[in-house]
Amino acid sequence: MEQKENSAQTQSAEKQLSPKAPKVRGEPFFRYGIAEFLATAMLIGLALAVLLPLGLPWLFVFKTQLEYAYNPWSLPKELLWENFSMAWETIQIGQGFINTLIVCAGAIACTIPPAAMAGYIFARFQSKYTEIAFYAIMAGYFVPVQMVLVPLYKMNISLGMTDTLYGLFLPMAAFGIPFWTLIYRSFFRSLPKDLVDAAHIDGAGETRTFFSVMLPLAAPATILATILVFIGAWSDYILSLILLNDQNKFTIQLRVAQFMNAYGTDRMPRYAAALIISAAPTLLLYVLGYRWIIRGTLAGAIKE
């Protein structure tokens, strides 16, 4: 009897220590249920919807036009780097880079300081009137750009700002200020009020308290705003298309679109090179700054 019990215990221990337990008949192959499977499939589909447009230009960019015409979906026979230099010269991407950088710098300078100061005021001085003013500003957040393109264009003409870069980044700032005011207001509300009281006890006024105490503490929100405003201004197409007519003032997105309109798919490898060049700064900035984006988000910047 003891030998039988010992052998049974040994067999059970071997089953437990075995790395691959034998599959029981009728056991489902996947541990996920239908809901988890559908959610995973949907997430994979969304990921592919983002990654495929980023990956397709790399399939075309190293080919000659003849190779692309015969085998558009095959791998390139050799890496033809000349398409990048040809695209740079043909579209004059250098001038587009300079114009777009000016627009991005102007959008950042005209969006973040007013939004930070407004957010601090709405968080620090809470009253019936400041709440009314806050929601009046927030009403602009719900106005889509497409709805005001015609009056915006007419206003630019009346103010003499047509075909100017500041006539482009000022509306961008106007559309961005409500959202970032909300972000800064939430962030300043999450900071302890004792910091402001301690600064006042030390003799600091409201202005010095804001610039010396509160604004440095809001660095995660400021870096988050800088990155996202830059990416938004760099990727803008519709405002640039409406407000800019002079080709010398075209941003890089307009220049790439102009190349596609002029040649269609007849110069697809060069067009793919132009797309990669135009998207490179935003992708690089996101890779370098995604930690700050997560840190700014987790720091309470998007809580309200």
Write up what this structure looks like.
With 304 residues, this protein is an all-alpha fold. Helices cover 74% and strands 0% of the residues. It has helices spanning 2-17, 34-60, 65-70, 82-91, 93-124, 128-138, 149-158, 166-190, 194-201, 206-217, 219-235, 238-243, 252-263, 268-301. The longest helix is centred in the last third of the chain and has 34 residues, at 268-301. The chain is globular and about 75 Å long. Residues 15-21 have low confidence and may be disordered.
Percent in strands: under 5%
Distance between the termini: 71 Å
Q: What is the overall silhouette?
A: globular
Any low-confidence stretches, pLDDT <50, length ≥5? 15-21
What integer value in Å does the Rg equal?
28 Å
Number of helices: 14
Which class best fits the helix and strand makeup? mainly alpha
Largest sheet: none
Subunit arrangement of the protein: single chain
Let me know the number of strands: 0
Integer average pLDDT: 83
Fraction of residues in helix: over 70%
Order of helices and strands: HHHHHHHHHHHHHH
